[in-house]
Here is the input.
Amino acid sequence: MGRKTKSSGLKIVKIQRSSNWHIHGTIHGRRVRQSTGTDDAQAAEVIRANFVKQITDQVVYGINPEYDFNTLAAKHLKENTKKTIVDDCFHIKKLKKYIGTLMMPQIYRGCDERGNPTHLEQFILGEVKQGNSASTINHALTVINTIGNAASKRWRGPGSKPLLTNWSSIQKVSKKEAKALGVKASRKGHVLTWDEQIALFNELPPHLRQMAEFAINTGCRAKEVLGLKWEWFHTEPTSGIQYFIIPGEEHKNEQSRIVVLNEVALRVTNQCRGVHPVFVFTYKGKPVKNINNSAYQSARKRASLKHPDIAKSHVHSWRHTFGTRLRNQALCPEEERKDLMGHKSGRSMTEHYSVPELRRMLEYCSKITHPPSMQMALVRNG
Here is the structure.
């Protein structure tokens, strides 16, 4: 007979400065000190019992251990070199608060045996409450599935066995479900008014405001702003027009993109000069890794107290606002709009480099630096 499991050796306890239950004790010679991730005593007891079973299976019966989300998420971040790993890190940070200490098979949607929303379902409901879209929620669920699939198919443990043997992919939020939850199925939509822009940008910390002003005046995607480098900056010698060329390998559609700088974007660029030798936008001497962070979300929440529709906006709204203003305020033709937005174009880079084309691009994006009434006054006085 195998050794008895001293389940009483592990207890759920409360500790200071935490509302969650923690597992403390010793089992099979292993000392345990970890959070259950929940403040529900019954749920914490289930997690404790499962943890005891996992350790016993491993030590007594030689069964491969199950892995919690925190462990596999750390492996995912460590081994992955894709450009969008920053996005994964952002979602993982939020997910860990809900499912970090759960074993992967314990992560599923719906309700538990007592009819309460599972930890993952609580995460989804929390995202809905914060005003995030179905698209954002599904990005987070995709990260979980990516990790689960890697652990069940590619990652190997003792005896070359998969780390997970009973993984089922998480179902994403469908359009029908998104409608029932009252969230948008797509993140596209909200265009900031000028009053909303002023209110939101005034709440942002200085480094985020610089990035926001640059994005809303160039149409750059968040990743393009985050990765913008000084080596991509150029000045056209004849006209003096200043611009960045984002290389194709750094761009979404793998086609080099010209970012022409109107007066606001140029002012922001000049404010950043001399701060960092490589990257344009930094914070405390280091490149910024994420715009949609807690500081941005707090600023958006404060600004939405006076302008409720700001709660519907997100970082991508700056790019969407840029495109809408080009069409409605600058009356920019579709072909030029595609160039300024960095959409895939049939035109060659030689055409884009030409002085007449640069002047046209600058002319259009210079018409959206101020509200229409102020823009007309500037033209009359200019």
Remarks:
- The two ends are 93 Å apart (CA to CA).
- Strands lie at 10-14, 21-27, 30-35, 233-235, 242-246, 257-260, 282-283, 286-287.
